[in-house]
Every structure is written in C-alpha cells, then in structure tokens.
Amino acid sequence: MHSTINATSRQPQQGLSFISWLVVIALIIFLAMTAIKIVPMYLKFNTIQSLMDDIAANTSLSQANKTYVFAKIDDYININGINDLSSKDFEFARIKGQKQARLLSIQYEDRQLWFANLDIIATFDYSTTIGAQNPLE
C-alpha cells in the first residue's frame, strides 16, 4: 500500500513551539528579577517621603532646631528599618526671605545588585518645607 499525503489535510500549527515557550518564560523571569530589585527601592523612597511629609505637617516641629529634627528623622528611620540612610543624609536649611520656613531635603542613590557584576541604580531627590504656610509638593 502506498499512502499519499493530501495537501489539503494539513493543519496549521496551533500554539507556541517549545523554543517560543522558553523565550516567553525567560522574559517573564527577567522581568520578575528586575521587579524584585526595583520595587523595594521605590518602597523605601516612599517611606522617606512619608516621614519627611509627617515632619513637615507636625506643627510642634515648625520651630524645632536642626538637632531635634534630625533626632526625629533618626527615630522614623529606625522604626521603619531603613539601615542604609541616617539623618546625616538629609539637608536642613533656612529659606531666604521666609522667617520661619526651613527646607528639609534628601538626595541619594540606591544601588542593588542585579546579576553578576551588573547593578540597578536609582537616584532619588525629595524636598519639603517645614514651618511654612504652603509646604512644597
């Protein structure tokens, strides 16, 4: 018996091939590894923003000196478990032309090991005004 293949009976391929599945899985792993490293950096920055906004909103700190404000910052940092920053990383300065207002700011770089000798680096910068009628956003 001789079997013949009918060209009209062929069905097109459905779904992804094995290689395509490997590429998709590798891409998902790549994105997951990146997210696992980046998300904590932004959560820490969000915590820093919140503590600075809390200090700015605290009316009892509007007349406080630099030492007291930095002690409060250290308390917030210790409570939130942020080990790589301290009050020394913050700047606290008077604003010219405003008698009671002071600017509290931070600028820092966060670095996370990503893979082998590659790092993910993010730069963060935030400022808020203490003791002013309209704090900076």
Low-confidence stretches: none
Q: What oligomeric state do these chains adopt? A: single chain
Mean pLDDT: 86
Which sheet architecture does the biggest sheet show? 3 strands, antiparallel
Structural class: alpha+beta
Shape: elongated
Radius of gyration: 27 Å
The separation of the N and C termini measures 84 Å
Domain module count: 1
What is the succession of H and E elements?
Answer: HHEEE
The share of residues in extended strands comes to 15-25%
Q: Care to count the β-strands?
A: 3
Helix content: 25-40%
As laid out across the biggest beta sheet, the strand order is: 1-2-3
Number of helices: 2
Question: Outline of this structure?
Answer:
The chain is of the alpha+beta class and 137 residues long.
